[in-house]
């Protein structure tokens, strides 16, 4: 899709041909500098340092007058340890075809100044998991030395893009240059770091330069969208001054382009789609029922293949597979035939980027949804595991381009608007545990019944597996994993019941329920005449966030959700319980109406001990300054695992 429009839409007047791109001149003047950098104390403690990172993207015309895009990369990296050697002794080249490589050199510079150089002749292919990579092995890399890497290659002539400027190691300087004929004007914006952005024009060439300095290394963190938080530069073509001062590639022009693209073949496909609607008895149903039934048909009979070109709805029905864009065409044709109002939604996952409604780059337009204004619900045609009313949790909370039909006389035209896709709420997403247990007469185990009930995004983590896995043995293995992760690995269980697993029925809108009878020995331990009852372990293993370095990124919980746990424990006759006060805990963010917390309590009625736990996260995105209390709440469940009661005869 991203390569569909560009050459047709650029509307460039080629007045001259650029035989030499700027980066070629840099290569020609490049001299190997054997002098090693002097590192700061902080830099010496890292595996390595990117001393300089330069990216050149030049839009030009080749000798035949064809519009093309050339990218140059220059990197200079200090190697401090074996980890960095492992990271950089093989360079993965960003080209699928070796013919697109115009220049390539990699040099190792040792501590004593010895230089070893490899180039195009050393490029090899590597296949991993069905994908073929071009790699360049670099000789002579050693701790205390440096690596210099230069490449020049042809790339797709997309008129917008995104470049990551950060690395797994510190970056002293990262620079992006976008070079074009002077009448083409690109705009750039940097996210997640301060940057200097400037433009100059010389010899009929315009250069837009982005510079960021002193970038910290990337570290993985729990509950964080690493990719979306990386320092990156987005850019887009905004003006072609040879044809006027009208802004190019606006949100409205995107609406018009996607509207036409996703409705391609609509009229010619209506007959074939109508036949399906009649055969499946969808015609004439109430709109919401019709949507659900057609979705079940499409997701049962049409496979999604990412690599496929988008085809018309009628061709998809014949082949029974489609790209995500093709699936959109199929649904849109059906909705038109059923006369059901809809809006096309094009956006991006917030795990990849926060949609910037102020910067009209089409880089943010890579995922499709449908929105139904009558019911205010969404549908994801490309997801085989989600059904009407639920979309990928990372599409929630991000802005997107909504495209609706508008009548202009006898014509139907698109109208685009940037709107926020709302989050699902804590009421939608539950993972609840109900337990009734008692002690064996020999006081060597606890036994009882456990029921786990899940809704919304929490249920979507398990329900699809039961829908698609039909083999009895595989189902047993899946159930075994779930029960052991819900309780403890040493649990023994029987009489398992699983409800509401069918994605193609109303079961998908009901809670997913798994219940079982269980026996646990490891939660009970004899200590002389007393018994240690590890009641906290009944809630199963919990996420821990201990011993981490300084937090880098803000918090993303995925979705608003809660865990409610109710444990009814029958204490044996003649025994008393000590340590009950350790069951009472209240850790929240301290607000008058808390948005996150872990609250546990107990009640003793006769010999029935009832323990209740409410762990909740009402707000998906939380700022960095809340991390300390967030960490305490997350760890509260793991701390509860350690609660032990003492049972002894009265």
Can you put this structure into words, describing what you see?
20% of the residues lie in helices and 38% in strands. It is globular. It has 650 residues and is of the alpha+beta class. Residues 1-18 have low confidence and may be disordered. It has an eight-stranded mixed sheet, sandwiched between helices. An eight-stranded mixed sheet has the order 24-25-23-22-29-33-32-31. A five-stranded antiparallel sheet has the order 19-18-17-20-21, covered by helices on one side. The protein is built from 14 helices and 35 strands.
Keywords summarizing the entry:
alpha+beta; 14 helices; signal; 20% helix; 8-stranded mixed sheet; single chain; disordered N terminus
SS content category = alpha+beta
Radius of gyration: 30 Å
Which term fits the overall shape? globular
Identify low-pLDDT runs.
Answer: 1-18
Instruction: Describe the main β-sheet briefly.
Output: 8 strands, mixed
Write out the strand line-up for the largest beta sheet, numbering strands in chain order.
5-4-8-2-1-10-13-12
How far is the first residue's CA from the last residue's CA?
74 Å
> How many helix segments?
14
Helical content stands at 10-25%
Percent range for β-strand residues: 35-45%
Mean pLDDT over all positions: 93
SS elements, strand count: 35
Summarize the structure.
The protein is of the alpha+beta class and 650 residues long. It is built from 14 helices and 35 strands. Pfam families: DUF3857.
SSE inventory with pairings:
Layout: H1 6-10, H2 22-29, H3 41-44, E1 48-61, E2 67-79, H4 82-88, E3 90-93, E4 101-109, E5 115-119, E6 123-128, E7 131-137, E8 146-155, E9 160-164, E10 171-181, E11 184-191, E12 196-202, E13 205-215, H5 226-229, E14 232-240, H6 251-262, H7 266-279, H8 287-301, E15 303-304, H9 313-319, E16 321-322, H10 324-338, E17 343-347, E18 367-372, E19 377-379, E20 399-408, E21 411-420, E22 431-439, E23 446-454, H11 456-459, H12 463-468, H13 472-486, E24 492-499, E25 512-520, E26 524-527, E27 530-533, E28 555-556, E29 561-570, E30 575-578, E31 585-588, E32 596-605, E33 608-617, E34 621-622, H14 627-640, E35 645-649
């Amino acid at each position: 899709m991203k390569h569909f429009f560009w050459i047709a839409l650029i509307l460039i007047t080629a007045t001259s041909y650029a035989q030499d791109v700027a980066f070629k001149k840099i290569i020609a003047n490049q001299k190997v500098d054997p002098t090693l950098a002097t590192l700061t104390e902080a830099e010496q403690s890292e595996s390595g340092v990117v001393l300089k990172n330069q990216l050149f993207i030049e839009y030009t015309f080749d000798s035949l007058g064809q519009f093309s895009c050339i990218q140059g990369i220059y990197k200079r990296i200090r190697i401090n340890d074996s980890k960095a050697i492992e990271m950089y002794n093989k360079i993965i080249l960003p080209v699928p075809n070796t013919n697109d490589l115009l220049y390539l050199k990699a040099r190792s510079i040792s501590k004593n100044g010895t230089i070893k150089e490899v180039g195009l002749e050393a490029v090899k292919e590597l296949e991993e998991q069905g994908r073929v990579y071009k790699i360049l092995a670099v000789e002579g890399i050693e701790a205390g030395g440096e690596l210099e890497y230069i490449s020049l290659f042809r790339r797709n002539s997309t008129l917008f893009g995104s470049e990551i400027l950060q690395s797994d190691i510190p970056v002293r300087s990262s620079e992006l240059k976008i070079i074009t004929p002077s009448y083409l004007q690109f705009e750039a914006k940097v996210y997640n770091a301060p940057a200097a952005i400037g433009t100059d024009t010389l010899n009929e060439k315009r250069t837009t330069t982005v510079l960021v300095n002193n970038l910290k290394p990337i570290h993985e963190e729990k509950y964080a969208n690493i990719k979306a938080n990386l320092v990156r530069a987005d850019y887009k073509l905004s003006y072609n001054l040879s044809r006027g001062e009208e802004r190019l590639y606006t949100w409205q022009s995107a609406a018009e382009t996607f509207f036409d693209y996703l409705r391609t073949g609509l009229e010619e496909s209506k007959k074939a789609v109508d036949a399906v609607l009649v055969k499946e008895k969808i015609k004439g149903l109430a709109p919401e029922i019709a949507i659900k039934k057609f979705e079940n048909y499409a997701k049962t009979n049409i496979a999604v293949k990412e690599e496929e070109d988008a085809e018309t709805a009628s061709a998809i029905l014949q082949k029974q597979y489609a790209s995500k864009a093709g699936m959109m065409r199929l649904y849109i044709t059906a909705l038109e035939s059923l006369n059901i109002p809809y809006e096309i939604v094009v956006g991006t996952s917030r795990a990849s980027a926060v949609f910037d409604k102020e910067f009209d780059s089409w880089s943010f337009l890579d995922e499709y949804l449908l929105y139904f204004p009558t019911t205010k619900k969404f549908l994801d045609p490309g997801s085989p595991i989600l059904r009407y009313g639920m979309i990928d949790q990372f599409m929630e909370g991000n802005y997107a381009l909504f495209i609706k039909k508008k009548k202009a006389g006898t014509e139907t035209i698109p109208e685009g608007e940037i709107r926020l896709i709302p989050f699902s709420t804590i009421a939608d997403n539950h993972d609840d545990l109900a337990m009734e247990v008692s002690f064996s007469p020999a006081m060597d185990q606890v036994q009882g019944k456990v029921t786990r009930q899940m809704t919304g995004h929490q249920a979507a983590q398990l329900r699809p597996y039961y829908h698609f896995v039909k083999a009895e043995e595989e189902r047993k293995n899946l159930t075994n994993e779930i029960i052991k992760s819900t309780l403890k690995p040493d649990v023994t269980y029987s009489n398992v019941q699983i409800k509401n697993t069918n994605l193609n029925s109303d079961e998908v809108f009901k809670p997913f329920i798994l219940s079982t009878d269980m026996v646990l020995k490891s939660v009970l331990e004899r200590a002389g005449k007393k018994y240690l009852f590890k009641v906290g372990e009944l809630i199963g293993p919990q996420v821990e966030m201990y011993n981490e370095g300084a937090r880098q990124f803000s918090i993303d919980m995925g979705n608003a959700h809660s865990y409610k746990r109710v444990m009814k424990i029958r204490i044996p006759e003649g025994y008393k319980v000590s340590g009950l006060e350790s069951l009472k805990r209240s850790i929240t963010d301290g607000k008058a109406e808390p948005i996150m917390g872990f609250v546990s309590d107990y009640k003793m009625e006769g010999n029935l001990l009832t323990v209740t736990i409410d762990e909740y996260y009402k707000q998906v995105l939380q700022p960095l300054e809340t991390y300390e209390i967030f960490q305490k709440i997350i760890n509260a469940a793991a701390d509860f695992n350690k609660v032990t009661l003492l049972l002894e005869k009265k």
